[in-house]
Structure formats: structure tokens, C-alpha cells
Amino acid sequence: MKKKTALITGGATGLGGKTAWQLAEQGYQLAINYRNSKKEAFLLSQELEKNFGNKIICIQGDVANQSDCTHIVEKVLSEFSSIDVVIHNAGPYVRERKKMTEYSIDEWNYLINGNLNAVFYLSKVIIPIMRKQHWGRIITMGFDRVETAPGWIYRSAFSAAKTALASLTRTIAIEEANFGITANMVCPGDIISQWKEKDIEDSILSENVPVGRQGTGEDISRVISFLLEEKSDFITGCIIPVTGGMDVLGKAYYQVKTPQQTKETL
């Protein structure tokens, strides 16, 4: 049986890296895309090959750039016979709190390109490949309640791009259903950096999360893995929150500052 190949954008660290571990363990061949994390990407690929014996390649490229997206796909196809799965994990995010008017034009465009247009750039060349093999799995990443088009203070560009991406994900699911291709969005909760590559068994108790424990990267990778299964073909066009019951945006609203406080933090 032919091994399936998965492309993971931003797959060197964090949730992308944890997903790479999950899929490698399940026998996938992997193409790990990175932008700046070259060392981390190659260390991860070596560990995965050593532990699971699958072929793993690393590809540098910025998904916000259309020519880089074309290069990424060409590189994958030069090493593997197909692209069966694409996980759109990469997506720029500005941690500094900024109101919409405080974003520069370049910042705004980069966030929109990296979180929305990147999916178009890659899908335009990958979906025809999936159509030919009459099978494919597409995973995008969102945030809690993205399908309701909520406002997210200080995250205007990111939230606008992801909200549009939720609609695009559902559109792809409808348009490509006849070709055996599914498209779903996974929406992580408030999983902080040091927990993005952790297992569920490593999780600690937390009073801030309704389920009573800290969220981990494994919580996300397990959902992605399930959506990729052969028998998950009836699940498409779905926006799936993985939040432990936390109201992520509600938490953000409680952190709203006055204009003067905001100015002092910038």
C-alpha cells in the first residue's frame, strides 16, 4: 500500500511540529515547511526518520509569498509521487496589541497574505493533484468562534484573515466533495507556547480551563489525525473548536486597556 504524503506548513515547531510527530508515527511521509526555523526543521526530520523510518524532507519558504508556495509544491513533487494531505499550519501573528489603525500597510498585507492568501496559493496547485487521485485532505487553522465572524480586539488583521479562511474552507469542501477531497478547520484554544509540543499526559491542572487541565499540542494533533482518516470522509466543511471549553475571545475582552494604557505598552 502506497504511503501517503503530508505537507505541513510551519511544521518545524509548535503545533506543526507536534502534528508532524503524530503523522510520522502513523506512517505518513512528510514535507516539513519552515520559514526561519531551519535548524529546528532538520533536527525534527532527523528524529522522525530515526524513530519511524519514514522519508521526511524539509523545505524553506514563506507561505505569504506566492512564488515560495509554488516552489514548496514543486519541491514536494520532486521527492514524492503525490501530495495527499496539506495542513495549513503556518500563519503570521503579531503579539503586540494594536488597534486596526496602528497597523502599517506592510504589516496588514503580510498578515492577510500569510493567513488567507497562502491557502489560495497552495490550494490552486495542490487541489488539481488531489483531484487526479480522487482523494485528499485539507486542514486549515482558525480560532474559537471564527465561524461567527466575531470581533477580536487588537487582532483585526489576523481575525479578518481567519474569518475569511473559515468561509474559504467551507467553500473548498463543497466544491471538491465530488473528488473525494475534504476540507476542515481546526481551532485551537489558548494553548501557550511551552505546551504546543507537549503530550496530554504531560498536562497539568488548570483552574482557568473548564475541563480542568492545560491544553497541549497533542489535543490538536489528535483531532487533525482523525480528520485525515479514510472513514472521516463524511466530515467536511466543519469548523472544529478544541478549546477545553474556554471562551478564548472572552478572555481577550477582559484584557482590554484604556487608550492611555495601550499607548504606554507600545
Q: What is the element layout, followed by pairings?
A:
Elements: E1 5-8, H1 14-25, E2 29-34, H2 38-52, E3 56-60, H3 66-79, E4 85-88, H4 105-133, E5 136-141, H5 156-176, E6 181-188, H6 217-228, E7 239-242, H7 248-254, H8 259-265
Parallel strand pairs: 1-2, 1-4, 2-3, 4-5, 5-6, 6-7
Helix pairs in contact: 1-2, 1-6, 3-4, 4-5
Structure description:
The protein is an alpha/beta fold. It has a single domain (5-265), classed as NAD(P)-binding Rossmann-like Domain (Rossmann fold, 3-Layer(aba) Sandwich), CATH 3.40.50. 44% of the residues lie in helices and 14% in strands. The chain has helices at 14-25, 38-52, 66-79, 105-133, 156-176, 217-228, 248-254, 259-265, and strands spanning 5-8, 29-34, 56-60, 85-88, 136-141, 181-188, 239-242. The chain has a 7-stranded parallel beta sheet with strand order 3-2-1-4-5-6-7, sandwiched between helices. Helix 1 (14-25) links the parallel strand 1 and strand 2. The protein is globular. It starts with a strand and ends with a helix.
Question: Characteristics of this structure?
Answer:
266 residues, single chain, 44% helix, 14% strand, 7-stranded parallel sheet, 8 helices, Rossmann fold, alpha/beta, disordered C terminus
**Coarse morphology:** globular
Profile the largest sheet: 7 strands, parallel
Helical content stands at 40-55%
CATH domain fold name = Rossmann fold
- Mean pLDDT, rounded to whole units? 93
The side-by-side strand order for the widest beta sheet comes to: 3-2-1-4-5-6-7
State the distance separating the first and last CA atoms. 55 Å
Instruction: Return the domain count.
Output: 1
